[in-house]
Write a structure and sequence with these properties.
The chain contains six helices and 14 strands.
């Protein structure tokens, strides 16, 4: 009986040691996600949340919208003011319209005819005055009439030339500045309106929705949490004696239940701070050992991993 008892104890110890043993270059870890929590810049009443937990969304998808009555009104006002300023500026660059120029041309033709008649009248008046048939006053009146008609023609010629030109440079510069100011006000109104919506910065899965329609969300208070596939990683722990063989940039295989056999990742981070073995990988053999936390990121198909899922990490050089 004593021999049987000793054999049983010995076999049991060997089995426990074998079960607790671990090959070098193979580490236990778990999948973890870095969530993107989308929040409004300004607070407000939530008007719509078109997504729900578990939805797969594309990059830029609308996640939530706050009440935006005031911002829409301000945007419409700014758009109208910009359109008005732009129209005034472009009008100053054009000069008079064609009908207005035609009106000046017609008036000039009439003034030219009047000038021609007044010149003929002046010639006859001078002949009569030379023969002594009329007074000096009559000659002066005919001369004044001819001069007035000539002045009207010159005035209309100047108006026609000016009408074909744009406005003065100082007027144009002032209108241009007003247009730029209105455009800046419109851009600000667009920006304020855009702040009332939350969009996904990356495609992925909606991990959680923290509010409901009608509730008030404060500034920088997350409304929707998104997990992009590229943000899924594997966190594992390296025993202190093996730290020297593991480096950032090393390739590892990632194995889990129902995962593809060829899932490969790259170690991107190794902590510089030591810690005791976490409870999740606690064992009697490692309870007194220091470990260093490390992170490996899948090179492809990260979506097959789920945060919290146990993952076995193996250095590729150790697997050879």
């Amino acid at each position: 009986m004593r021999l049987h008892s000793l054999l049983f104890i010995g076999v049991t110890a060997l089995l426990l040691a074998a079960c607790d043993g671990r090959d070098e270059g193979i580490y236990q870890g778990y999948a973890e996600g870095e969530y993107v929590r989308v929040a409004p810049i300004d607070g407000g009443i939530i008007d719509a949340i078109p997504v729900k937990r578990g939805d797969r969304i594309e990059d830029g998808a609308l996640l939530f919208q706050l009440e935006q009555t005031a911002e829409v009104a301000a945007h419409e006002q700014a758009a109208a003011q910009y359109a008005q300023a732009k129209a005034q500026y472009e009008d100053l660059l054009k000069g008079l319209r064609a009908p207005e120029l035609e009106q000046i041309v017609a008036a000039r033709a009439s003034a030219a005819a009047t000038l021609q008649k007044s010149q003929l009248d002046l010639a006859r008046t001078r002949a009569l005055y030379a023969r002594g048939n009329i007074s000096r006053a009559a000659l002066d009146a005919a001369q004044a009439t001819r001069d007035a008609a000539a002045g009207s023609v010159r005035e209309l010629d100047a108006r026609l030339t000016t009408g074909k030109l744009a406005a003065r440079q100082d007027q144009i510069a002032a209108a241009e500045a007003g247009t730029k100011a209105a455009e800046a006000a419109l851009a600000q109104a667009d920006w304020r309106l855009a702040r009332r919506e939350g969009h996904a910065p990356q495609g992925g899965t909606v991990a959680d929705v923290f509010f409901r329609v009608g509730e008030f969300a404060g500034p920088s208070q997350p409304v929707v949490s998104v997990l992009p596939p590229a943000n899924i990683k594997v966190r594992f722990f390296i025993p202190e004696p093996e730290l020297g063989r593991v480096h950032t940039g090393d390739k590892v295989t990632l194995a889990c239940d129902a995962c593809a056999a060829d899932l490969v990742g790259t170690i991107r981070f190794i902590s510089t701070d030591a810690e005791f073995t976490p409870p999740v990988i606690y064992s009697e053999k490692t309870k007194a050992k220091l470990v260093y936390m490390a992170e490996a990121w899948p090179d492809a198909s990260p979506e097959v991993l789920h945060p919290g899922q146990p993952v076995r990490v193996t250095l590729i050089e150790a697997a050879k």
